[in-house]
């Protein structure tokens, strides 16, 4: 049929955008559910089972960014756009270089180039070597390659049967780390790997630990979180029936209470920060921590890990958040950090 101006109407292309999405291992189904709740139908293909998937969303990229940044997800750790897709192999890499060289908005900019490989990638060398090769190939852009405050991020994913790439602003990735994987080196004297969770929370949520004077650490043993607080100049009351690490004995500014947290009473407004990392049922943890919140000053910070022992974590997390909200806690972020295993981290401020 012809329209009045004599033109044959074209069927409009459905709007869609594609992304490689990453969650902690085993949590991809919950990241997919988060996307479904925000964007409706999501077509997805697993790239790494339980962890990385390619998602097609029926909305414009701008809308994806806006909705995600206004509703920061808990389980979706990282997202990278797919604007270029080709078959696996070296000729496709050449075509990717040509494509990137054609993007005039990248000229002379600071760019972070993130390269990841799938399990059986056609690229046999390391991702770092692919990054170096690609940087050389796109020299014509006159760009500076740096992970520090880049204007743009180029994300490349070399899988066994395809090559994917996309360019976006850093905040659109949800994490400035390649694939959202933030890694720290374990210090020789580090008491527990659990400490990484609090280091990551500090960086990810921008928590000003240096500004706190008095802290309560519930479920503190062996003492990774306690040592983190002490190193930030916080005087710590550490509560745990289990033993704290030898190195913390007689540490100035540390009071150790070898007790069950349920047995304790504290004064009003005794602490500026409360942290809790107990391997406990989430509801019991929330009940116990809320029972101690009178000791947190208004404006004080709480960081707690919530174990995901439940089959429906999203519903359970909502319930736990509601328990805290009913006790004058404003949720700043709920997120499964890279260093969280079967748990998430809640960052809250008391009002
Ligand atoms: C995962 S560990 C904490 C690790 C610690 N954040 C670190 O960085 O070293 C959990 C701790 O919670 C403690 N815990 C469990 N129930 C508790 C309770 N009712 N009161 C105090 N501590 C408890 C356990 O004894 C255990 O040491």
Characterization of the model:
The chain has 351 residues and is α/β, with parallel strands linked by helices. The protein has three domains: 17-76, no CATH class; 84-180, VC0802-like (2-Layer Sandwich); 195-350, Rossmann fold (3-Layer(aba) Sandwich). 25% of the residues lie in helices and 28% in strands. It has eight helices and 16 strands. The strands form three sheets. The chain has a seven-stranded mixed beta sheet, with helices on both faces. The protein has a five-stranded mixed beta sheet with strand order 5-9-8-6-7. Strands 2-3-1-4 form a four-stranded antiparallel beta sheet, with helices on one face. Helix 5 crosses helix 6 (224-231) and helix 7 (282-290) runs parallel beside helix 8 (313-325). The chain starts with 16 loop residues before the first strand and ends with a strand. Residues 1-6 have low confidence and may be disordered. It binds S-adenosylmethionine.
